[in-house]
Amino acid sequence: MTLALALGFGAVIGVLLGLLGGGGSILAVPALVFGLGLSMEQAIPISLIVVGMASAMGALPKMRAHLVEWRLAGIFAATGIPATFAGSAVGRLLPERVLLIGFAVVMVAAGARMLADRGGTGTACSTEGSRINWRRCAPRSISAGLAVGFLTGLFGVGGGFLIIPALVLMLGIEMPVAVGTSLVIIVVNSAAGLISHLSGTSIDWAITAAFAGTAIVGSLVAGQFGTRVDTERLQRWFAYLVFAVAAYVLVDAIFLR
Environment class of residue 65 by beta-carbon count within 10 Å: exposed (0-12), middle (13-18) or buried (19+)? Predict the structure, then answer.
């Protein structure tokens, strides 16, 4: 029964990833905790595996199309990796109730970002033609990389809902390049987060394989039909679903544990 649920939840999250190009993984941890009955300690590394593998699949075509700004990805990774280990260390010190409440807050932020206007690019870090003004970009990249890495280690989320706004609005990167760069950053941070969570944590590899396998297949299949779906409407309704799940997580954490 547990494996069947893992297959089902993985497929749903994979389809959402394929249709929306990201964001669906925010439901991985709640699905594992509330759907499969795992603890946060068990759910986070599985979520990181799913997020990392799905992001890697999405990053490959972006890399082939040269839609990755490698130097920015390097800055995010260099700051994000140690921050990921720090987030994991802090997470081990916090009670599960506190982690769930924090995760619900992150979900609300992710849902709000999905409802926000995505149009345009920012001017805080201007570009000069195709060249990036590194004097302005580097400090903002470092602070954003630290924040994203910490959240990845603490909650097992990819952080794309933070990386994309940072690249587009703070650094002025065009959306196609921001998406490709974000996927590469998520892969690196997820790998670091997984390594930081492996010590002292037992991973149920059967559930992991079922969950990750159907998520990847669902993502690839749904990606073929993405152009036929009204993604703006789907993303809006998905944001409402994220709010509803966040409310459930909060009620459970505050009143039922």
Answer: exposed
> Can you give the pTM of this predicted structure?
0.82
Does residue 219 contact residue 57 with C-beta atoms inside 8 Å? Answer: yes
Whether residue 181 contacts residue 221, with contact meaning beta carbons closer than 8 Å, is answered with no
Lowest mean pLDDT of 9-18, 74-83, 97-106, name the range.
Answer: 9-18
Beta bridge partners of residue 128, listed in sequence order? 131
Dihedral through CA 229, CA 177, CA 24, CA 190, nearest 10? 160
Q: Which two tokens stand for residue 250?
A: 């909060």
Residue 166, amino acid: A
Residues whose CB falls within 8 Å of the CB of residue 70, separated by 6 or more in sequence, listed in order: 184
Judge contact between 117 and 154, C-beta under 8 A. no
Answer for the pair 84, 158: CB distance below 8 angstroms, yes or no: no
CA distance 243 to 239: 6
CA dist 212 → 13, 23, 25, 86 (Å): 10, 16, 11, 25
Q: What are phi and psi of 84, to 5 degrees?
A: -65, -45
